[in-house]
Amino acid sequence: xxxxxxxxxxxxxxxxxxxxxxxxxxxxxxxxxxxxxxxxxxxxxxxxxxxxxxxxxxxxxxxxxxxxxxxxxxxxxxxxxxxxxxxxxxxxxxxxxxxxxxxxxxxxxxxxxxxxxxxxxxxxxxxxxxxxxxxxxxxxxxxxxxxxxxxxxxxxxxxxxxxxxxxxxxxxxxxxxxxxxxxxxxxxxxxxxxxxxxxxxxxxxxxxxxxxxxxxxxxxxxxxxxxxxxxxxxxxxxxxxxxxxxxxxxxxxxxxxxxxxxxxxxxxxxxxxxxxxxxxxxxxxxxxxxxxxxxxxxxxxxxxxxxxxxxxxxxxxxxxxxxxxxxxxxxxxxxxxxxxxxxxxxxxxxxxxxxxxxxxxxxxxxxxxxxxxxxxxxxxxxxxxxxxxxxxxxxxxxxxxxxxxxxxxxxxxxxxxxxxxxxxxxxxxxxxxxxxxxxxxxxxxxxxxxxxxxxxxxxxxxxxxxxxxxxxxxxxxxxxxxxxxxxxxxxxxxxxxxxxxxxxxxxxxxxxxxxxxxxxxxxxxxxxxxxxxxxxxxxxxxxxxxxxxxxxxxxxxxxxxxxxxxxxxxxxxxxxxxxxxxxxxxxxxxxxx
Length: 593
Ligand SMILES: [Zn+2]
Prior knowledge:
By secondary structure, the chain is of the alpha+beta class. It folds into five domains: about 5-90, DNA Primase, Chain A; about 100-225, DNA primase, catalytic core, N-terminal domain (DNA primase DNAg catalytic core, N-terminal domain, Alpha-Beta Complex), CATH 3.90.980.10; about 240-345, Dna Topoisomerase Vi A Subunit, Chain: A, domain 2 (3-Layer(aba) Sandwich), CATH 3.40.1360.10; about 370-430; about 445-590, DNAb Helicase, Chain A (Orthogonal Bundle), CATH 1.10.860. Helices cover about 55% and strands about 10% of the residues. The strands form four sheets. It has a six-stranded mixed sheet with strand order 12-14-13-15-16-17, with helices on both faces. Zinc ion binds near residues 38 and 40.
């Protein structure tokens, strides 16, 4: 990235993060931390916390986290180097730059963005001014887009010839390729990637142009839509969301974002007064998309073609709801319509469908019930069973149960019977899944229970290291990510910043969360013994499962199980001296080495 590592560190150390953040939200000192309303999401009770000493922030609402550099990147729309330069200027630090190559990488991205930007202008100019663009203009007019809309969304037209853009840009084939605009054909001639298409430029959330979606004209050739290829250096279809640059303001204000399927749906939504609309570009929604959307709003309304609605795999949606604390709803559009069309024919109906969006599962059930036939008792049962089958996929038993009651009520069947019937109703989710489903639920409760003590252990390790460092072991951390966090801190010799840099995202986010939380007042002996008790309990359960499964009742194994259980009982009370923990620690050390 080009700036001398030492200087970046100096910028981080000498920047007053509280002062930087105070320009965007009012922070006040609460206990050992600074708190305020989150500048990244809309909220009434402050859940944004800053650790002044370590120079990091964490939002307990939207999970935004980082240091002064990350903060400035997000808030001032700068890249990494730009953010460091911004802070260095404030702190009066003159930066030194490393070797040219790295500087060139930074420059390269900028260069490619500029090229795509030039292409945006070129295509737009062609659309407006070229006589040959008439069919394209007519197509847009038929969708209800006038000239202002074309300008607002920078719409364009790619000429039909092989190399109009290439000639206009006059750059190397490598540049064309890296920017996703064209390449070199087998005769060694440059060609344009998009030809005779209506062009929808795609911007990232910061408003930088990164790629295009090109729509075929009604009598054109090839696929209906063609998107910038993933081989382009500044474009990734699994991450990019069309319209996010325009949607983010309203999404933040209303804590909701609308996800459509296509470019014209997003524009249509805008025309109907829904500015919080985005679309994935030529791909189904990925988990990267879900994660990115979470940064802007906690609730997602899927506004898909009526025929495709609910096609999103239920399992993935439930997984994302849980993993990212997102809520998914579906807008129930009139049959045979998509948001783009509906915005033209009946914009009020589109707004209503979005406003009245139903929870994902409710939508699926309602649709099933609507299709069903309730004219005879046999058909009522059959319809109830079909609807209940959808319910079996939901991971939460309480949610499942309330839908079962609802279905039973609508179909006039006995809820008790339907509940019982649910046991055999899941041919798509065999027994194994049901077991693991229950396993997940148990594990989750367990994790939350232990996460607190793991968090405390990590916090003491970072703030009062000498009290605990000699007693901790990887095996004492039961959550994978907490164990990794512990190992990373140890690899970094206890240095928070070094650990954060080494860690992958989920781990570094845990580390930031730990130091941004109010410091624990627990003493290390208490934390350590609770951590040990849980680890021993878990290990004992694990070993007895092994014994049962393998029908192995060796003396040694049974002794271990018994020893661990007796330790769990002993540890219900915190010992007076850490020495009392040593035998058990020793047991773990030898058992896991
Ligand atoms: Zn937040």
